[in-house]
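In response to the reviewer comment on reproducibility (Comment 2.3), we provide here a single inverse folding case reported in full, input and output, so that an independent group could reproduce the run without further information from us. The structure tokens appear first.
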């Protein structure tokens, strides 16, 4: 079988399986499984595909046909221009979440860049570590801490820190701030910035999500309980004891949660609350100050 025929068959199989981006996914799998870029393809399209490469390609196509996420098949994904290893223990980094990183970068540039001391930042529910690592990569003067309740997620976050050559980030297992309460390290007590992209999908809404999400991404990283707000309530209440004066709290939210999250913040005596929209015009990030 020639490369041109193999790719065409891959696209057809994915299309029949109801994969939305069938054509694109078939190309990405060609590049990652067969190590053939689209540029190389046009010089090889009429060449015979080695048997082992063809078998590996169609095995990946068949797996993708079950709606198993493309990112998990290839084992990595890009976020903020960096590469991150991903598997079923973590959410797949999404472009929407880049907004929370860009917001944090702007605030650090505006308010903290001229400070001589190191800026202490914590990323709660860190998952793959994409938020924490992206910030640590950008700023040498940031002392970054990422926490998660999942040991498997933390292992992958540490792998990603090594992959991106980051040494100013640390990852520890903690249920939000719980383990930090007994940590003897003073660096883990107070922070200039607290960031989180917590689980915020309403429990009953999860089954309505696309199969790639509801069937394969970790439920613990999606489920925000009945109202989708349980983690915001916990974070806003607990963070007051860990955020320095004039420090900021930055949260990713669902498109319809701005009013509820703002109300939670106000009840916890946060001020200067700002809601930031994403590129689609949906409310996506909330910033508040102590």
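Designed residues, in position order:
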């Amino acid at each position: 079988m020639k490369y041109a025929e193999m790719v065409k068959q891959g696209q057809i199989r994915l299309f029949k399986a109801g994969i939305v981006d069938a054509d694109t996914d078939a190309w990405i799998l060609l590049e990652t499984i067969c190590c053939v870029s689209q540029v190389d393809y046009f010089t090889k399209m009429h060449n015979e595909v080695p048997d082992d490469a063809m078998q590996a390609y169609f095995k990946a196509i068949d797996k993708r046909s079950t709606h198993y996420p493309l990112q998990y098949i290839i084992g990595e994904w890009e976020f903020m221009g960096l590469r991150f290893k991903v598997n079923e223990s973590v959410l797949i980094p999404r472009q929407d979440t880049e907004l929370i990183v860009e917001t944090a970068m702007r605030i650090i540039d505006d308010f903290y860049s001229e400070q001589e001391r190191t800026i202490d930042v914590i990323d709660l529910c860190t998952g793959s570590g994409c938020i924490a690592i992206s910030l640590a990569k950008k700023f040498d003067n940031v002392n970054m801490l990422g926490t998660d309740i999942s040991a498997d997620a933390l292992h992958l976050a540490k792998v990603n820190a090594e992959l991106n050559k980051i040494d100013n980030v640390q990852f520890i297992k903690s249920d939000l701030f719980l383990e930090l309460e007994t940590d003897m390290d003073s660096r883990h007590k107070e922070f200039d910035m607290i960031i989180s992209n917590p689980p915020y999908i309403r429990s009953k809404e999860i089954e309505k999500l696309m199969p790639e999400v509801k069937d394969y991404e970790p439920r613990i990283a999606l489920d925000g309980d009945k109202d989708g707000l349980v983690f915001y309530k916990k974070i806003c209440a607990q963070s007051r004891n860990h955020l320095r004066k004039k420090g900021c709290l930055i949260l990713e939210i669902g498109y319809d949660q701005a009013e509820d999250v703002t109300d939670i913040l106000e009840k916890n005596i946060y001020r200067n609350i700002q809601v930031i929209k994403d590129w689609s015009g949906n409310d996506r990030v909330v910033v508040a100050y102590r």
